[in-house]
Specification:
ATP Synthase, domain 1, 80 residues, mainly beta, single chain
Length: 80
């Protein structure tokens, strides 16, 4: 699936990924390929994703996530 991570200042990431783990209002959750469409609020914590067998982590304050048609867009207010 395609992942795009944006802040008001710049694009942090855009590429294909296998998994995404996010800090949500009701706890951590994961998005995998072919996930159902959804919109979710993100809270302070660790956003991680796996691409080409390598896991990357980003500490975030808050933001919003949209999943649609195997594309995930994450808009962050800021990173830590």
């Amino acid at each position: 699936m395609k992942l795009e991570i944006l802040t008001p200042e710049k694009r942090l990431y855009r590429d294909e990924v296998e998994t995404i783990t996010l800090p949500g209002e009701m706890g951590s959750f994961q998005v995998l390929s072919s996930h159902a469409p959804m919109v979710a609020a993100l809270t302070k914590g660790t956003l991680s994703f796996t691409a080409k067998g390598k896991t990357e982590e980003i500490e975030i304050e808050d933001g919003v996530l949209e999943v649609h048609d195997n594309k995930v867009v994450i808009c962050l207010d800021s990173t830590l």
